[in-house]
């Protein structure tokens, strides 16, 4: 599973980092970055949840 | 009473709670008829942007629409619920100015949210509230015409965000609130002092401790009259004095209303069978706090959508909603994040950083010392440490006194 985040639109709502801290983190400016761009399949459910919670649709899963 | 799984579900509200509830129903295997009713012309969108980037940018409403899964649903947009007949199990709908028509249901999910509270007599041109895309379009047009002086009535999140945005456009901006500092209702006086400094450092004028007696003007607004007799001259006025549940269509239906739709712990509505509520309109029996709670934040809406969908399918035996959620506000160059739901009288204890630098973490405690929330002021990178390892886990036990 490959995922991308759009840091240009991220507003630092932190929905993703709460749901899947193994994959998402916020920097000092509060902008998302990825700990892993190819996370293991067992994290898929949480990452899909993060997609649904993101208020700016910044997260994409590219299978 | 034996619960019968519904086959005809109508969701009133196509914003984030309604849309995510529809997705949850399908994900849970519901394959019956599904009707999604939305008062605005678009399905769930980036509403938090309306007070910020949408006002300064050139995006169209359609650019804000959030991706949605294939729902196999009957979408009724620009349509609102006008009446509910729980005996006949029909909800009456109305598209724009068309005639009302009945929509039968055996499961009804109420997720139509709130509407902005208006100022009595505040109907002059140039006076705005901000809740919908149409509101934001009108405000955006006014903010960008002729460098207006802006007065904002109400120092809550919406008012503060619009103030920051107006200052970002270089406009003369005044924020008015009867409390001594902005943000005090949600975050208390100590945090409000930090917010006050943030606003004044960015050139927003504060008129705190001032009530409003009315707006002045002829064809258009010219100013805001204060309770101390003063006048704030303004070409644009934004009224940010809170929202109220959009529950008027439920009056007399049997559905119990008190600060929104009163719900059991699992979000099943009191007063009529086959009905659940989610999001800003749901006032539910909070299982841990032992009192009814209604929350007007994004994450709560998404989470309640899932719980309410489960309750519609499984009946009142479905599990209770007991989740500690977070909310945020972005003001100027600052990010404020709050985990939990502190009360205005809770004490803020600084545990990291310094409020003077506007980089700090504080823990709110109630009068018995119990933690009620964590405030991160420009400390987003520390969120995971205070949130624990997952959103579901609530406040970390290490904070308990």
From TrEMBL, chain B:
Cofactor entry: FAD
Domain FAD/NAD(P)-binding: 8-305
Keywords: FAD, Flavoprotein, Oxidoreductase
Boundaries of every Reductase C-terminal domain copy: 327-384
Signal peptide range: none
Cellular component terms (Gene Ontology): cytoplasm
Protein name, as recorded: NAD(P)/FAD-dependent oxidoreductase
GO molecular function: oxidoreductase activity, acting on NAD(P)H
InterPro entries: FAD-oxidoreductase/Apoptosis (IPR050446), FAD/NAD-bd_sf (IPR036188), FAD/NAD-binding_dom (IPR023753), FAD/NAD-linked_Rdtase_dimer_sf (IPR016156), Reductase_C (IPR028202)
């Amino acid at each position: 599973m490959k995922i991308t985040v759009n840091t240009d639109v991220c507003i630092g709502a932190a929905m993703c980092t709460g749901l899947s801290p193994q994959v998402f983190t916020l920097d000092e400016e509060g902008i998302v970055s990825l700990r892993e761009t190819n996370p293991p399949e067992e994290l898929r459910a949480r990452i899909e949840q993060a997609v649904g919670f993101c208020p700016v649709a910044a997260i994409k899963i590219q299978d | 009473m034996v619960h019968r799984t519904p086959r005809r579900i109508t969701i009133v509200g196509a914003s984030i709670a309604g849309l995510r509830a529809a997705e949850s129903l399908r994900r849970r295997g519901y394959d019956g008829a599904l009707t999604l009713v939305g008062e605005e012309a678009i399905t769930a969108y980036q509403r938090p942007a309306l007070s910020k980037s949408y006002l300064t940018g050139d995006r169209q409403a359609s650019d804000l629409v959030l991706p949605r899964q294939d729902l196999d649903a009957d979408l009724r947009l620009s349509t609102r619920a006008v009446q509910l007949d729980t005996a006949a199990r029909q909800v009456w709908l109305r598209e724009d100015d068309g005639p009302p028509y009945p929509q039968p249901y055996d499961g009804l999910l109420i997720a139509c949210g709130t509407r902005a509270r208006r100022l009595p007599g505040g109907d002059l041109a140039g006076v705005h509230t901000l809740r919908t895309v149409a509101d934001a379009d009108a405000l955006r047009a006014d903010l960008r015409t002729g460098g207006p002086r802006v007065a904002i009535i109400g120092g809550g999140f919406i008012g503060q965000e619009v103030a920051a945005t107006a200052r970002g456009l270089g406009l003369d901006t005044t924020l008015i609130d009867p409390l001594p500092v902005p943000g005090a209702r949600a975050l208390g006086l100590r945090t409000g002092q930090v917010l006050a400094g943030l606003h004044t450092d960015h050139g927003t004028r504060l008129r705190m401790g001032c009530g409003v007696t009315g707006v002045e003007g002829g064809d258009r607004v010219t100013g805001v009259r204060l309770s101390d007799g003063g006048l704030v001259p303004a070409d644009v006025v934004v009224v940010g004095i809170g929202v109220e549940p959009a529950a008027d269509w439920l009056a007399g239906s049997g559905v119990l209303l008190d600060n929104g739709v009163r719900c059991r712990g699992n979000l099943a509505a009191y007063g009529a069978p086959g009905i659940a509520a989610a999001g800003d309109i749901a006032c539910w029996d909070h299982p841990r706090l032992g009192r009814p709670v209604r929350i007007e934040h994004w994450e709560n809406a998404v989470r309640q959508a899932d719980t309410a969908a489960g309750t519609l399918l499984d009946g009142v035996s479905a599990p209770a909603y007991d989740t500690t959620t977070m909310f945020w506000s972005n003001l100027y160059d600052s990010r404020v994040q709050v985990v939990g739901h502190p009360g205005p009288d809770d004490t803020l204890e600084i545990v990291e950083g310094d409020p003077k630098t506007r980089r700090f973490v504080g823990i709110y405690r109630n009068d018995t010392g119990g933690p009620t929330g964590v405030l991160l002021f420009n400390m987003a990178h520390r969120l995971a440490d205070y949130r624990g390892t997952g959103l579901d886990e609530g406040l970390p036990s290490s904070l308990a006194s």
